[in-house]
């Protein structure tokens, strides 16, 4: 089983749509959870941390279910500028490295 | 303030050659980590250095090595290059040895092995 598994992409949605990404992780000892965004041929950038209580940042909502080792990201009212690859990320057991999923590509069209 | 800087930005090498990639962390950050991102995959952890000591190592062969200098900058060395080493090499800096406070990636070095 891969350490971090994400929905296969790509997701092609119109502007204004709501889109959800799902992710599962295998290491129950992971303590830190993130969603990163990566634009084409650029470095990954932190989109948001994910907490057990769930957290929201504008149009973005992230959820964590530790019992089922599941992480989600919801994007409401999609914008053209949301087109990117979204990476689900957890930490390793030692807390010294990030483990990335393969990423899910989102394409928002007008 | 300068972010994480990596050099060179692009590099073409021949199979069997050796390469050195460089990274300067954000001022005040003492930890540097290296990742390899092959096309179509997420970044994969190679090394973490904190206060000049190796704190973590990913599942990479001994051809990969790194070090951190007193000014906290770091070098990643790859010997006996293979075609499969072609990738974007990312450096991330952070404040400490554990945790991810301020964890920031540089724009990477794109290595092509021919």
Give an overview in words:
The complex is a heterodimer of chains A (110) and B (114). Chain A is mainly beta and 110 residues long. Chain A is 0% helix and 53% strand. Chain A is built from no helices and eleven strands. In chain A, strands 2, 4, 5, 9, 10 and 11 form a six-stranded mixed sheet that branches. In chain A, strand 9 and strand 10 form a beta hairpin. The relative contact order of chain A is 0.34. The mean pLDDT of chain B is 95. The termini of chain B are far apart. In chain B, the strands form two sheets. In chain B, strands 2, 4, 5, 6, 9, 10 and 11 form a seven-stranded mixed sheet that branches. Classes of the chains: A mainly beta (110), B mainly beta (114). Chains A and B meet through strand 5, strand 9 and strand 10 of A and strand 5 and strand 9 of B.
Give the SSE string of chain A. EEEEEEEEEEE
Largest interface: A-B, 23 and 25 residues
Strand % of chain A is over 45%
The low-confidence parts of chain A are: none
Helix content of chain A: under 10%
Q: In whole angstroms, how far apart are the ends of chain A?
A: 37 Å
Name the shape of chain A in a single word.
globular
Tell me the number of helical segments of chain B per DSSP (H or I, 4 or more residues long): 0
The succession of helices and strands of chain B, N to C, reads: EEEEEEEEEEE
Enumerate the spans of chain B where pLDDT stays under 50 for 5 or more consecutive residues: none
Number of strands of chain B: 11
Q: Helix/strand-derived class of chain B?
A: mainly beta
The rounded Rg of chain B comes to 13 Å
Indicate the overall shape of chain B.
globular
């Amino acid at each position: 089983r891969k350490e971090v598994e994400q929905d296969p992409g790509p997701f092609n949605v119109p502007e204004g749509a709501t889109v959800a990404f799902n992710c599962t992780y295998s290491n129950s000892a992971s303590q830190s959870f993130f969603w990163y965004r990566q634009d084409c041929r650029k470095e990954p950038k932190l989109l948001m941390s994910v907490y057990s209580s769930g957290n929201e940042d504008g149009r973005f909502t992230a959820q964590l279910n530790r019992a089922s080792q599941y992480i989600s990201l919801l994007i409401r009212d999609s914008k053209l500028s949301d087109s990117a690859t979204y990476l689900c990320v957890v930490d390793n057991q030692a807390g010294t490295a990030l483990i990335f999923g393969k990423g899910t590509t989102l394409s928002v069209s007008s | 303030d300068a972010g994480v800087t990596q050099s060179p930005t692009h590099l073409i090498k021949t199979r069997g050659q050796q390469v050195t990639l460089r990274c300067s962390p954000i001022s005040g950050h003492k930890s540097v980590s290296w990742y390899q991102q092959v096309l179509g995959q997420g970044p994969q952890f190679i090394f973490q250095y904190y206060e000049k000591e190796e704190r973590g190592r990913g599942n990479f062969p001994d051809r990969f090595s790194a070090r951190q200098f007193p000014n906290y900058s770091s070098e990643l060395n790859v010997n006996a290059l293979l075609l499969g080493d072609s990738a974007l090499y990312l450096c991330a800096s952070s404040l400490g040895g554990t945790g991810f406070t301020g964890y920031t990636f540089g724009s990477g070095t794109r290595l092509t092995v021919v």
